[in-house]
């Protein structure tokens, strides 16, 4: 009997778990920037498992370190310490901006977001949180309430005390203005939001330096300085969600927020930190971490195998100067996409930083074109290339290869993307 992944998925998995493509793709193995499906067909991977395979599939240094750890011990729980956990905590304290120092290791971004929110509330003694429209922060009740997208919310997204501020989305400016003449009306509106929809004293502003699931919405450079200053004026701390933007992804810097000149009180990591091993981490200023009183455990948090993967991933990122490499190859990818933008009417906007590039597909008058995005992805798959999709309307292609991608692979990707555009123009 032939293998029936679509039927098996429908029968045994929650339908809410959305897979890409009409015929779900079953991946078997990967190496560097390439993955192979169970039929032996290879694909250029320009999504990296949602920006998670940061230093390449089966990276030898990460796999080697995990292999060594596998033979020693794979579970301790947070009731005991393990060496890789302490190693990663020390490395993070050294490489993160400002005075960020104390880490709490978890299993996913969602858990790390929860920990960040609890930490901010415990530290400030307040409970109101400001999040941004078009944000994504995970899948728990709190995280989906923080999330600024109706499609990703559930019946449980009703946590009280969370309000949503404008983001810096210049292509679809909610104030119908143009940067820089707008004087950052989007960021300045935060003050009005606090005065009119909260008690006037908030616990935190939480935001992604570049919005990931939102479609790589890249704010104007001054957005965060203005917004964070307002949040602090009303007593809030700044929680920076670096789950997608962290560890060199945005090019030239280790963390996305470093482009915007703001030092957060709390940062959240997951995804690319361990090159695919399950991980989440909240790092905070020491006084904030110390204010989370009481007892707490995470059975799998700080798991030695994930921590070994994270330690090796950080080493690769630093030793191989990945942020600089990302800036260089990201520049090539961006230049090629800008050429496609100039040639094809259905490309409305190309944006992002480093190897976090979004391509917003539109019809007449910037109308979001999610169907074109779906066709684009199917077509790219046919040509042997995987890409991601996002945006409130599902019309933004997301290009995020492993950060170790080579120049030649970027050229190969641009060639394929050009062919997809030509096919769509003929359709
Ligand atoms: C910015 C951001 N924060 C938090 C999360 C939640 O992470 P996880 O899926 O590991 O729970 C995600 C996941 O995509 C994310 O993109």
Overview of this protein structure:
This protein is α/β, with parallel strands linked by helices and 427 residues long. The protein has 13 helices and 15 strands. The protein has helices at residues 5-12, 48-51, 60-72, 83-95, 109-124, 141-146, 185-197, 223-233, 286-290, 304-319, 322-343, 370-382, 407-426, and strands at residues 27-31, 34-37, 42-45, 102-106, 129-132, 162-165, 204-207, 237-241, 266-269, 280-284, 347-353, 356-361, 385-386, 388-390, 396-399. The strands form three sheets. Strands 4-10-9-8-7-5-6 form a seven-stranded mixed beta sheet, sandwiched between helices. The longest helix has 22 residues, at 322-343. The structure holds pyridoxal-5'-phosphate (PLP). The site of pyridoxal-5'-phosphate has 16 residues, from helix 5.
Helix content: 25-40%
Query: How would a crystallographer describe the biggest sheet?
Result: 7 strands, mixed
CATH class bucket of the largest domain: Alpha Beta
Structural class: alpha/beta
- Identify the overall geometry: globular
Q: In the residues, how many domains can be counted?
A: 2
Secondary-structure element pattern, one letter each: HEEEHHHEHEHEHEHEEEHHHEEHEEEH
Give the beta-strand count. 15
């Amino acid at each position: 009997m032939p293998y029936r992944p679509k039927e098996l998925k429908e029968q045994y998995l929650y339908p809410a778990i959305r897979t890409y493509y009409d015929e779900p793709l079953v991946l078997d193995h990967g190496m560097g920037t390439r993955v192979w499906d169970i039929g032996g067909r290879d694909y250029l991977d320009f999504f990296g498992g949602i920006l998670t395979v940061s230093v390449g599939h089966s990276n030898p240094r990460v796999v080697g370190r995990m292999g060594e750890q596998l033979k020693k011990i794979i579970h301790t729980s947070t009731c005991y310490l393990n060496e890789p956990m302490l190693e990663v905590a020390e490395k993070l304290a050294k490489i993160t901006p400002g005075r960020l120092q104390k880490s709490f290791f978890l299993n996913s971004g969602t858990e790390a977001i929860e920990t960040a929110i609890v930490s901010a509330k415990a530290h400030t003694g307040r409970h109101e949180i400001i999040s941004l429209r078009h944000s994504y922060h995970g899948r728990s009740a709190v995280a989906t309430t923080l999330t600024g997208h109706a499609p990703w919310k559930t019946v449980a997204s009703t946590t009280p005390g969370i309000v949503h501020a404008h983001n810096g989305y210049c292509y679809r400016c909610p104030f119908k203005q143009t940067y820089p003449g707008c004087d950052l009306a989007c960021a300045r509106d935060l003050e009005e939001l606090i005065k009119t929809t909260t008690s006037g004293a908030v616990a935190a502003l939480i935001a992604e330096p570049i919005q990931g699931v939102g479609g790589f919405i890249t704010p104007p450079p001054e957005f965060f300085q203005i917004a964070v200053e307002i949040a602090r004026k009303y007593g809030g701390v700044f929680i920076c969600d670096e789950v997608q933007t962290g560890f060199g992804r945005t090019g030239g810097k280790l963390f996305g927020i470093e482009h915007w000149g703001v030092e957060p009180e709390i940062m959240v990591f997951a995804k690319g930190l361990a090159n695919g091993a399950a991980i989440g981490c909240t790092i905070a200023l020491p006084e904030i971490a110390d204010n989370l009183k009481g007892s707490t455990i995470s059975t799998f948090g700080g798991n030695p195998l994930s921590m070994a993967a994270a330690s090796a991933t950080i080493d690769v990122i630093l030793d191989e100067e990945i942020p600089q490499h990302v800036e260089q190859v990201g520049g090539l990818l961006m230049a090629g996409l800008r050429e496609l933008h100039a040639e094809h009417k259905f490309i409305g906007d190309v944006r992002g930083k480093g190897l976090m590039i979004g391509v917003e597909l539109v019809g007449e008058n910037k109308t979001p074109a999610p169907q074109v995005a779906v066709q684009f992805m199917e077509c790219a798959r046919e040509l042997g290339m995987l890409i991601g999709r996002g945006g409130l309307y599902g019309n933004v292609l997301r290009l995020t290869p492993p950060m170790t991608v080579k120049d030649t692979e970027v050229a190969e990707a641009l060639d394929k993307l050009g062919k997809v555009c030509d096919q769509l123009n003929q359709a």
